[in-house]
């Protein structure tokens, strides 16, 4: 794997599996966008997995304005929401290269898998050390990302 040289050259993304306990907002999923070079992470909470493209578009616009750079490559797993026709067409229209990772290949998925593990373990620790109900997971996962950044 090559290392990214400019800030938005390579973005890792992870879309969680369904979280059994709905968040306060009724959401069951979260998606992360991670800048390869800095490991800066954004977390968005989703009601449905099909919101992934909407969140990616929102995130992309924000970081491109903030950095003055363009997203060049998106690395994700082969999850259906990343390889949908609509998502594929959007990436092509924006000249964003897609890198799909091989299942269970830590060399390719290590960044997103590790961040997901950090987020989930942090949420579990905060819930076990507090009196908060499990439905606060969304607030805790976004807080964890904020603190790590």
From TrEMBL:
Residue spans crossing the bilayer: none
Domain of life assignment: Eukaryota
Presence of the UniProt keyword Transcription in the record: no
GO molecular function: DNA-directed DNA polymerase activity; endonuclease activity; hydrolase activity; metal ion binding; nucleic acid binding; RNA-directed DNA polymerase activity
InterPro entries with a match to the protein in the record: Integrase_cat-core, Retrotran_Ty1/copia-like, RNaseH-like_sf, RNaseH_sf
GO annotation terms (biological process): DNA integration; DNA recombination
UniProtKB keywords: DNA integration, DNA recombination, DNA-directed DNA polymerase, Endonuclease, Hydrolase, Magnesium, Metal-binding, Nuclease, Nucleotidyltransferase, RNA-directed DNA polymerase, Transferase
Domain Integrase catalytic: 1-149
Name of protein: Integrase catalytic domain-containing protein
Organism: Lepeophtheirus salmonis (Salmon louse)
